[in-house]
Specification:
By secondary structure, the protein is mainly alpha-helical. About 75% of the residues lie in helices and about 0% in strands. It is built from 6 helices and no strands. Helix 3 packs antiparallel against helix 5.
């Protein structure tokens, strides 16, 4: 049994050596004619002590070149690109937020414009209502004074009829102006509602 194991082991070693020799022969034969293989060149250098041996040059702080550039493997990172990248990102972010800010500012300006128009119309209605109230009071005072004195009413009836008609016409005109102003305000409110003005600003 031990003998079989020895024979098997011997055969395995022999096969391995044969495969190695075949591989070496193949690599040697693959070298084109006229050129030496790397293994041959290494053996030649080892056998020939007179062959010059290139020593690697070592650099330290004392012998670093001051007028020449050192060769660096790989590409040098662009400092300009590195410096401008954050700025570009900021510009892009600003460009993205600027339309939103402009849109918001335009919306605020439009709301303020609507508020100014609505307030002006309300003020016009209030002024016309006060003027109507003054006219009505004045008419009532004159009418009371005219009808209080029967003699005066008889003497100045033609003049009073004319004044009475003028007052009534002024009162009717002022009332119509107020009604028109209120209708205009309602139309403005509807238009503002369609434009997106909040209800709190319309009241």
């Amino acid at each position: 049994m031990k003998r079989i194991a020895h024979i098997t082991f011997g055969l395995t070693v022999l096969i391995t050596l044969l495969i190695s020799l075949a591989a070496a022969q193949t690599s040697t034969s693959s070298v084109p004619p006229g050129q030496t293989s790397l293994g041959d060149y290494a053996r030649k250098i080892r056998k020939d002590p007179a062959a010059p041996k290139a020593k690697p040059k070592l650099f330290d702080n004392d012998n670093l070149p001051t007028d020449d550039k050192l060769s660096v493997v790989g590409q040098k990172p662009s400092t300009e690109a590195a410096n401008t990248a954050p700025a570009d990102d900021k510009v892009k972010a600003d460009a993205a937020t600027k339309p939103a800010e402009d849109d918001q500012a335009a919306k605020q300006a439009a709301l303020k414009d609507w508020q100014t128009k609505l307030n002006a119309q309300k003020d016009a209605i209030d002024l016309a209502a006060r003027e109507l109230d003054v006219l009505q009071r004045e008419y009532q005072l004159r009418a009371a004074a005219m009808y209080a004195d029967a003699g005066n009413r008889i003497r100045n009836s033609a003049q009073w009829d004319k004044q009475d008609a003028e007052y009534k016409q002024k009162i009717a005109d002022k009332q119509k102006a107020i009604d028109d102003a209120k209708q205009k305000l309602d139309d403005m409110k509807e238009e503002a509602r369609k434009a997106g003005v909040p209800s709190s600003m319309l009241d």
